[in-house]
Amino acid sequence: MATEIKVPSLGESVVEATVAKWYKNLGDSVAVDEPLVELETDKVTLEVPSPCGGQLKNISAKEGETVEVGALLGQITEGVVDNTVSEKVAESKDQNPENRPQETQQAPTQVNNLEIDKVDTDIKKVVTNVEKLSPAVRKIVTEQKIDLSNIDSKRSDGRITKGDLINNINDSQSQTENNESILSNAELRKEVPMSRLRQTIAKRLKDAQNNAAILTTFNEVDMFQLIETRNEYKESFESKYGVKLGFMSFFVKACVTALKEIPDVNAEIQDNNIIYKNFYNIGVAVGTDQGLVVPVVRDADKKSIIEIEKEIFELGNKARLGKLSITDMQEGTFTVSNGGVYGSLMSTPILNPPQSGVLGMHKIEKRPIVIDDEISIRPMMYLALSYDHRIIDGKAAVTFLVRVKEGLEDPRRLLLGV
Q: Is 393 considered catalytic here?
């Protein structure tokens, strides 16, 4: 009995995917729930498991093909493995001339008299030239393993000189360098197709620039108190909860507090309407080998620092392993992006449509700061808020950023919710 492998539901508004990779070959045995094929959508990469145990009988959608939800990917023969499929695959390979061993070609058994005369003449020429070589030239010929038949003498008596050999060596080196140059130029360019995820990232970023009136405002935050708090509790936190205490959970909490005060930053535009949201789903940007993805911490306002930190840790791992689901990526209302992990000192982050705001974090750097009329060296971070100026005024944006700064500079306010 043959069981069909079909493209599963890909989530809200996603109707097609690209077949990225087959983990099994035609004729391979498979176990139930074993990953068979990897699909890449414009949001995530997901694996399609085997619906039953048996043997992969047919592959209908090859790697690189675009398939719609419900489309046939292949078929599995349930139950006992049938070796005839594997044998047919092997037979097809054997019938392919490219897979056959090269037959040894026999050299001609006869050579005509003209060819024999030519060979004799060449041998006599080489022997004569060797007899005419000086000791110095003989040494070069031996060390460099030079074929004298390729050397042209410029003397009337045909004797090969040291100058003839040097010219030949220089010509050979020049040809080698020329070949290397051609190879080097060929390696200067490498053309690969964009993945579906990368295409979507490019389109969404360009759409954000084209459709929103993006403006960025900056501030800086003194990270001293937050670093002290983290250093004091990080070991006990990790031993109790199994994850490291980072800064991102504090930033998420600080943003939620500010979003509640400035609701425009948590809103979005639909046609000619402004949609205000009374829930706080904070997207946390994560860099992966496939590109930037933004999993969402849902209902962050109802979660503690501990719960947020654990969820960020889990979502980050899923992102790097390519295990994020469509649900993990949906319904974000605001995004936090940490370019500081890559060493960025300052940037202007781009909106994640349809959201109207994104906070950019940057690297912590010690700088001289005036505190109570005295210069002090403090760990400082630049913050950048990019926002859609169509619905967020400058005053609201600046106030939002100040509230984030206040919460981070006094972490007790975040823990107490004041």
A: yes
